[in-house]
Amino acid sequence: MNNRGTGFPRADAEHDFLRARRRQVLSRLAKWLRGEPDDVNIMLPFNEVVDALGYLSEWRIGLRVISLDSIVGSVDRGRDFDRRFRPTSGRVRERWERLALAARRGEEIPPIEVYRVGELHFIIDGHHRVSVAHAQGLSTIEAQVIVVRTKLDPSGIRFRGDLIVKDYRRLFLERVPLTGHARASVIVSDPWDYALLGEHVEAWGFRLMQDEGRYCDRASVAQRWFDEEFVPVVGMLRQADMIGTRTDAEAYMWVASERYRLIRTHRWDDDVIEAVRARKR
After folding, report:
1. CA-CA distances (angstroms) from residue 45 to 68, 73, 116?
2. Sign of the C-alpha dihedral, residues 32, 34, 35, 37?
């Protein structure tokens, strides 16, 4: 990127804006040609992210220098900029060029304000400043930071569509409150599978309470299901080479469903695993 300038700050600021607009148009065209989903170039909406992850608390940590690439979303869900903070229209041009001119002249630019969720940042105030910084080839920016703690780890979120998986996982973990290693081990790709797995675990817990004649809370059911059902079954599936490209949880759901549909049993042993494999050949 050549942002050295001509020595005429006002003309350079105008060129900065036109270059940023041109890149936004070319990016949109490339996305269309590649057939990418609509959310690839859309900023992540802060409220939807926090709702999907589950809000716990927040606190202000003050002024920090943050990476521009870590800014992935916005609080107000404005459509004036795309995911890379390139202007999506000429509507912001006057204010944008005014800030670009100030930056070109070396004037002091106030810090932006952001929420931090994990390693991700969401703009509260300062969209134009971030856009100008990107256009002028900077890699960092000063920001007043508010840290938001959530129930789920935000890692893995790149696009808006990823929020669906996080939201279903959050709901699943409210129904099946796994912790630690167990929590990290039960992962599925299709968000709807979390709903199906939640139903399955609750049914397993109901049968457990019937068999033992006593009440178990959700946390106890979740841990016992993981220890007494999930881990042994996944172990058998590994020995039988039946995991394939699935996650452990996806393989468990598949064979549990087939076991009952084909054999009408809730028991697990080597004969059941072999019968399911034989029926699927």
Report:
1. 17, 6, 13
2. negative
What's the chain's length in residues? Answer: 281
Q: What is the pairing mode between strands 55-67 and 112-117?
A: unpaired
Amino acid letter for position 170:
R
CA 129 to chain centroid, in Å, comes to: 25
167-to-114, 119, 136 alpha-carbon distances in Å: 22, 19, 36
Closest CA to 259 of 240, 205, 221: 240
Residues 251, 256, 261, 267: is their CA dihedral positive or negative? positive
For residue 240 the two structure tokens come to: 């039988």
109-126 as b/e, with b when 16 or more CB fall inside 10 Å? eebbebbbbbebbbbbeb
Taking alpha carbons only, the member of 73, 166, 59 closest to residue 121 is 73
| Whole-number Cα distances in Å, 185 to 164, 179, 210, 236, 248 | 19, 10, 27, 16, 8
The pair of structure tokens assigned to 29 is 């065209």
This model's pTM is above 0.70: no
| 175-197 pLDDT per residue, tens | 999 999 999 899 898 888 888 89
Contacts of 186 (CB under 8 A, 6+ apart): 176, 178, 197, 226, 230, 248, 249
For residue 247, what are its two tokens?
Answer: 């996650």
Distance CA 222, CA 229 (A): 10
User: How do residues 240-253 score in pLDDT, each as one tens digit?
Assistant: 888 888 899 999 98
Q: Find the radius of gyration of the CA atoms of the chain.
A: 25
Q: Answer for the pair 229, 247: CB distance below 8 angstroms, yes or no.
A: no
Residue 48: C-alpha distances to residues 5, 38, 52, 127, 260 (Å): 40, 17, 6, 19, 37
